[in-house]
Every structure is written in structure tokens, then in C-alpha cells.
Amino acid sequence: MAAPQLIALVGAECTGKTTLAQAMAAHFGGLWVPEALREFCQQQHRTPRADEQAALMRAQFDQEERITAQAKQAGCAWVFCDTTPLTTAVYSAYYFSDHALLASAHALQSRYALHLVLHPDVPWVPDGQQRDGASARQAVHAMLLQQLQIRHYPCIDIKGQGADRWDAAVSAVLALLY
What we know:
The protein is of the alpha/beta class and about 180 residues long. The chain contains seven helices and five strands.
């Protein structure tokens, strides 16, 4: 049984990663890895502190490992990851000026067959306790792009609204097949 390909959906807050990851998993018959940050905020009723970032990054990785194993056992070809450990490291750098997690995050990042980079060109919508507001989106997006470009990870920009965004994402995944 071949290992499933991991597709990373990355981007700043409220760019549609969760919605797109779920829809892509359903469309391609794959599995979806939820965002560990969202689960943390729902369980703790707060955003994580600086000293909790490494554990949060590890939780994202562990969740990906668990779901990837499930996908392999089920014969699924795809796993769609609603963000990655690198995103946690970028947020740690942005919000806490702590760059210590970046090296560890990069060590994990090459495992993704493709990164769908969701641009902050959709309306910002409040999304529970984990969101600080629309003001951080551009800065976080720029930091994330910089980190992805440093290592030349395979990336496809996902821009636009509705069907344009969907079509770009589906086309990018289909291109991996050919």
C-alpha cells in the first residue's frame, strides 16, 4: 500500500484553509487533518501563550501522523492538512518575536507533496477565540511566503473568490497526477 500524498493548505488566518481542506478531502476521497490551534482554542477557551507554541506545533505534526496512518490503512491517496507546523512557527515569530521553532518546522515541511498557499484576498470573518483580527493577515502572509520561498517548497498560489479558488486548488492537485 503506497503512502498517501500530503497536501498542505497554508495561509494567514481566515483565508479559507479549513473549508477548502474539508472540501478537497471529500472531493478526492482523502482525509482531512484539522488545525491543532483551532482545537486548542476550543478546549482551552483562549489563545495559546508563547510557552505553548512548541507543544502546539508538535500536536499538529502528531495529528498529521495519526491521520496519515489512517489514510494509508484505508487506501486513501490524499491527506489534506489544514495548516502545518511551519504555520505555527510563523505565528510564534509574528506574535511573540520567537523564531526558535522555525528550524524544527522546516525539518518537517519537506514531507508535503504540495503547498496550497491561500492568499488573504477573501473577506475576513471572525472565527472564534483564535482570531485577533484582519490587521495581521498581510504581515503573516508575507512571513509565511518568505519561509516557503527560503526552502523552495512546491507551492501553488490560491487566489480569488469561490469557484476561482476551488478550481485553482483542484487543478493543482490534479497536476500531481500527471
